[in-house]
Write a structure and sequence with these properties.
- The protein is an all-alpha fold and 251 residues long.
- It has 2 domains: 1-50; 53-250, no CATH class.
- The protein is 71% helix and 0% strand.
- The protein has helices spanning 3-20, 25-38, 54-71, 74-86, 90-105, 110-127, 133-146, 155-166, 178-199, 207-220, 231-250.
- The termini are far apart.
Length: 251
């Protein structure tokens, strides 16, 4: 069989298993690589060669650092402090939510950032008698645009940078994405605080919110709310994150 046809067949089976999750996702991914090697599409030495790629290593490292931020409660503590300082006014609260989300998502997982801030925002919205949707929609939007600020803010940025390096071309710097990401974030922030907030559907927090929060936290690897939080571990994870960002920015 033609290698291209074989590859498409393996890809189709892998896609089906990814969507249905009949077996663990990691097993599906490794099985697809193995199948391509057994079927002769890839030489045996290249089947798992991608695991040593610098981009993959970078992903792995940032996932660990991001998980530390969420499990120690650092991300949630930062978000809670900023949101509490903003008060209970709808516009001020929205601005604070978006600002802290943009900053956190620029150096960590968008999903994890949203998962950690959702309980805080829902609680404050209920206490201030503000529809939860008025703060949760800006949260989601800010998480998306925040990822465009740095090279590690979102996976596509890292992949593109790695592809340029592999091709022997000049790659993007750590903060070069900010030339587009920062203006985009400012524009989105200004829009949501003026025109955008008037178009957000009004929906109050309900019973489904708790389930949604737990599902998002599980996906992001966030810690247990009831588990004791160590301030020392928060400081350690925060300092490591700052050190990594500084080292990557300064090359």
């Amino acid at each position: 069989m033609d290698p291209a046809i074989t590859t498409l067949c393996v890809l189709a089976v892998a896609a089906f298993l990814f969507v249905t999750e009949l077996i663990p996702l990691a097993v599906t991914a490794m099985a697809a690589c193995t199948a391509l090697g057994i079927l002769g599409v890839l030489p045996s030495k290249q089947v798992y060669a991608g695991l040593s790629n610098s981009t993959v290593v970078l992903f792995g490292g940032m996932f660990v650092i991001g998980a530390a931020m969420f499990k120690t409660g650092l991300a949630e503590a930062v978000g809670l402090w900023v949101v509490n300082k903003a008060g209970t006014g709808e516009v001020k609260l929205m601005g604070a939510v978006m600002l802290v989300t943009i900053i956190l998502s620029s150096v960590s997982s968008n999903t994890g950032t949203v998962a950690c801030l959702m309980p805080v925002i829902i609680g404050i919205a209920q206490a201030a008698n503000i529809p939860a949707s008025k703060e949760l929609m800006p949260l989601a939007v800010a998480a998306n645009v925040g990822g465009t600020i740095t090279m590690i803010g979102t996976p596509p940025n890292v992949i593109v940078t790695g592809a340029l390096s592999a091709a022997g071309l000049p790659s993007f710097g750590f903060f070069e994405f900010a030339l587009i990401g920062v203006p985009l974030s400012v524009i989105v922030l200004a829009y949501m605080l003026t025109i955008g907030r008037k178009t957000i559907p009004i929906k109050s927090a309900g019973a489904m919110d708790a389930d949604a929060v737990e599902a998002a936290k599980k996906e992001a690897g966030a810690g247990d709310d009831d588990a004791p939080k160590s301030k020392t571990k928060m400081w350690i994870s925060g300092l490591i994150l700052l050190g990594v960002v500084a080292a990557m920015a300064l090359n």
